[in-house]
Each structure stands twice: as C-alpha cells, then as structure tokens.
Design brief:
- The chain has 254 residues and is an alpha/beta fold.
- The protein has 11 helices and 9 strands.
- It has helices at 31-46, 79-87, 104-110, 127-130, 138-145, 147-156, 162-168, 180-192, 196-209, 216-229, 233-243; strands at 6-10, 15-20, 52-57, 93-97, 100-102, 114-118, 122-124, 160-161, 173-175.
- It is globular.
- The model has no long low-confidence stretch (mean pLDDT 94).
Length: 254
C-alpha cells in the first residue's frame, strides 16, 4: 500500500516498514493516516511471513502530532485503535525518530518495543497548551516513561531533547547521520535471529508479568511454559543451528 500520507512495504526478509510521508506537513497525521496505519499493523500481525515492523518517517520530522488544520470527519479508527494495535503487536516493533516527535508521535513510539532517535530530535506532549488533555494516550506514555515523568512533561507541554528522552527511557539509543543506518540494520538483524514463536511468547509474558508481584504460583506457571517451549520444533532447530554454527531456518537474508 502506498499513498500520499503513509507508505507500507515488506522486504524479502519479512521486515515491514511503515513510513510517514507528509514531509510538507511535518508528518502530521489525519484520519486517513490512522485508518491506513491500523490496516497495515493488522496485516503485519496476521501475516506469518512478516517478522517485525519498523516505523519511520520521510523528511525533517518524525511526526508533529495531529494535523489540526485537516477537516474533521467521523472516524471509525482513532488514535486509541492504532496505539492499542501497535502496543499489542505480537511481533517486534522498532521506531526510528528524527526531528520533532510531538503529541501523538510520542504515543506511537511509546507503543514500540525499541526506539532509536537522532541526536538532534526533540519531543513534546503539548495537548494542554492547545486546550485539552491527552487522556486516552496517557496509559501508553506511562508505560514508556513512568507516572512522575508523564506528570511533568504532559502538564508543562515543554520541549525536551534527545538526551533527556534517552535518560527517562522513552528512547533506547541515540544515533547520528554517520551511524544511523548501520545501527538500525544491526538491530533488525539481531531481531531476525530470534525465533518467531519465541519472540511472540516473550512479548506476551512481559505483558503478563509487568505489574504482577513475584509469587511462587507465577514462577511455576512460567516454568511450565518454559519447559514446554524447550521441546518445541523451534527450540530443536535453534539448538541444532547453534551446534552446527549456522543461521537458524527462520532467518532470511534480504
């Protein structure tokens, strides 16, 4: 799928890339963008040949938030639908940020598993300055940054720089023009080396245990799942490929 607002492609390795394509509008999103994002994320989720999703943008900025100049139309798909589908995606997701990442842009990356950002990028959650609360998006902000940091940045609407985003955990790694593509290529290769079902199971487990107390019942349930996984076809192939010093059969080169 390709249109004026969003591009979607899948390469031979099974790497899906969603690219914001409204450079002249700072890659702000409209109802059409959200609808196309939701459809594309569903395609990634439902296609077993797709291994992971990369979210990025063309031009100066990653995403400056909603296009407030766009004509308001009834929406069957909204931000909460897109964010939830991205957050719950059973496959790895990676965001690559440059320039401005504002409002809904921060929500998008808060829903991704790994976030890389250009050293010159900057961030803001400015909705209160426009006259409304970003209420429906706050759970995603809090999962990425924690309650106290969201209280600060969502209430002040202030701009914060890439080093601050790294410090508070919104971003995992900073990149510059010289090593940008090398770092993201290495990250993708690392993710492709993981077994698909194992990665899916890991994401489900992390979501399950994130806010649970550590109890013996929880650990025993996780141990049972672990023991079953160790006898799976993926585990057998993983062990065999390790012993034979070769790539596992789920890895595909481009």
């Amino acid at each position: 799928m390709s249109n004026l607002e969003l591009m979607f492609e899948v390469d031979a390795r099974g790497v899906a890339t969603l690219t914001f394509n409204r450079n002249e509008k700072g890659n702000s999103y409209t109802s059409q963008t959200l609808s196309d994002m939701h459809r594309s994320i569903a395609q990634v989720a439902n296609d077993p040949s797709v291994r992971l999703l990369v979210l990025r943008a063309i031009g100066k900025h990653f995403c400056v938030g909603a296009d407030l100049s766009a004509t308001s139309t009834p929406q069957s798909i909204g931000m909460i639908d897109v964010c939830m589908s991205l957050y719950q995606l059973s496959k790895p997701s990676v965001a690559m940020v440059q320039g401005a990442c504002i409002g809904g842009g921060v929500a998008f990356i808060s829903c991704c598993d790994v976030v890389l950002a250009d050293t010159k990028s900057f961030f803001s959650i400015p909705e209160v300055r426009i006259g409304f609360s970003p209420g429906p998006l706050t759970p995603f902000f809090m999962r990425a940054m924690g309650e106290r940091l969201v209280k600060r940045y969502a209430q002040t609407g202030e701009r914060f720089v890439a080093t601050d985003a790294l410090r508070i955990g919104l971003v995992h790694q900073l990149v510059d023009d010289e090593n940008n593509q090398k770092i993201i290529n290495t990250l993708i290769e690392d993710l492709l080396m993981g077994a698909p079902n194992a990665l899916s199971s890991l994401k489900a487990t992390l979501s399950q245990v994130a806010h649970q107390p550590i109890t013996m019942d929880l650990l025993q349930a996780l141990q049972k799942d672990f023991d079953q996984a160790r006898t799976s076809d993926e585990a057998k192939e993983g062990k065999q490929s390790f012993l034979e010093k070769r790539k596992p059969n789920w890895y595909r080169q481009g």
